[in-house]
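Check this:
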Amino acid sequence: MIPIPNPLHPAIVHFPIVLILLGALVAVLAAIIRRWHLPWLVVFLMVFGALGAAVASRTGAQQAEMAGEISARAEALLDQHEEWGELTRNLAVVTAILALASASLPRFPKTAHGLAIATAIAASSAAFAVAQTGHIGGQLVYKHGIGINTAAGNPPTTRPSD
């Protein structure tokens, strides 16, 4: 039996990060080159990226409830992280829908190409949002020690605040 990580959020978030970033790259290629089943690859990457982002949002909200007492700056960063995470999820869902529409219309090449361009734009926006979410999440962990288990005898490393 495979053990379930605790906390689950840090183990889950890497899947949508990779899928959305890769999906954005392939979406741009699919807008330029409509071959090799690239449009369907975008659908696959963005559908699973959106699903992963939804699970990451849910597990992140659950973990945030268990954060306990944190500084005002960390609380503000946590709120930003949550907002960017929700935006990432929403953009990934929109991108997945656009990608599916684009891939499903091979009989209408002009419409499919227009949707492919819209998909590439939405995917690029989702990629930016996931990068922002991850950057803020990294600040929460590495600058503020949020999510670090100090009970295991491993004190968090501290850095002077900026």
